[in-house]
Write a structure and sequence with these properties.
α2 packs parallel to α4 and α3 packs across α4. Helices cover 23% and strands 37% of the residues. The longest helix has 18 residues. With 369 residues, it is of the alpha+beta class. The chain contains eight helices and 20 strands.
Length: 369
């Protein structure tokens, strides 16, 4: 048995536009998705994530390359012959059928016995916490409940892999956050592989064991949520996941995992982690997360320490968002509010002079892209 539930081997998918132009929606993608893994394809619209999912499902076929499920090449097998089920953003429920009938539909098509159908539908309803709602029609359910019915309908067929195409996109923010946690708990309970498509970075970080960040049909980085956030391998990934401050310069020296980069805007060198295996002489980007910058009334380092002035602040409860001018460079800092006070002097304020401290271990030097 293969260690991988799904593999994409050098997969390409080309489309012809009405103007006669050939576009590679998926461009030589290689993925290995492990058994029992919650794996997310993350990227903006048009990056190729949904097309990749549709090729796994069998709704599209690769122009080049091969899709394997449980180590079996899928070729041009139609969706109903693949050990997968898909949950869509639109739910795609039959409005004239009850919850029970919607969930049972796939089993009835497979000629499963009524006793077995009733047992498996009952199990699926309990799994998604909808026991007692069997007779309701979709219009009598909330958006979150309809999404649960769609999940139960997919899981009742016991697929090896569950494919989810932005399934929470139609829900409001509070319900979406609740469903994220429920989905992850459900995946751990049933133990099958979930492949999840989203453009929402926080959603991917919350639920995923691993994430593939895509752009223009290519996978730029595939890693755990922690690694994607803490060690992005290029500027695009750092910019797409969370927020970051960026400044460009030239690598002056490399010492093991660390590097020094000269930044013309600051007329100074910055030390940081060489996250893209860059060499001296290369143009590169410094990336540092706003929450990892420290502010101080005095200089505390011999390097990576710059004087700046606060130009604006925004109090948001847990943090204060601070915007600074550092030698003409605009920087943002998220400062956690660790005290409870109504005294305005307890917080940073507009016009205040501070020192901006960029600890080298929190500063990444990345490839420009």
């Amino acid at each position: 048995m293969s260690d991988y539930a799904v593999e994409l081997r050098d997969v390409v998918k080309r489309f012809h536009t009405p103007e006669g132009v050939e576009l590679a929606a998926v461009d030589h993608v290689n993925l290995q998705i492990k058994n029992g893994e919650f794996f997310s394809l993350l990227g903006s619209s048009g990056c190729g994530k949904t097309t990749s999912l549709r090729m796994i499902a069998g709704f599209e076929w690769p122009t080049e390359g091969e899709v394997l499920i449980e180590n079996n090449p899928m070729g041009r097998k139609p969706p109903y012959l693949r050990p997968v089920n898909t949950v869509f953003q639109s739910y795609a429920l039959f409005q004239h059928m009850s919850v029970q009938e919607n969930i049972a539909f796939g089993l009835e098509m497979k000629k499963v016995s009524k006793i077995e159908i009733d047992r498996r539908v009952g199990e699926a309803l309990a799994m998604v916490k909808l026991t007692g709602m069997e007779k309701r029609k979709p219009r009598q359910l909330s958006g979150g409940q309809q999404q649960r019915v769609a999940l139960a309908r997919a899981l009742v067929n016991r697929p090896s892999v569950l494919l989810l195409d932005e399934p929470l996109g139609a829900l409001d923010l509070k319900l979406r956050k609740e469903m994220q946690l429920e989905l992850k708990a459900l995946q751990q309970e049933v133990g099958i592989t979930f492949i999840y498509v989203t453009h929402d970075q926080e959603e991917a970080l919350t639920m995923s064991d691993r994430i593939a960040v895509m752009s223009h049909g290519k996978v730029l980085q595939m890693a755990s949520a922690v690694e994607i956030y803490e060690r992005p391998n290029c500027r695009f990934v750092a910019d797409f996941i969370g927020e970051s401050n960026f400044v460009t310069g030239k690598i002056m020296s490399v010492d093991g995992q660390m590097a020094n980069i000269f930044v013309p805007q600051l007329n100074a060198e910055i030390s940081g982690i060489n996250a893209s295996n860059l060499t001296a002489g290369q143009e590169a980007t410094v990336s540092i997360r706003p929450e990892k910058i420290r502010l101080s009334p005095n200089a505390v380092l011999n390097h990576n320490c710059f004087e700046g002035k606060i130009v604006a602040t925004t109090y948001i409860g847990s943090d204060t968002h601070i915007f600074l001018d550092v030698n003409g460079l605009r920087m943002k800092v998220w400062d956690q509010n660790k005290i409870s006070s109504l005294d305005p002097k307890a917080y940073y304020y507009q016009g205040q002079n501070v020192w901006v401290v960029l600890f080298p271990e929190n500063t990444l030097i990345l490839e420009n892209n």
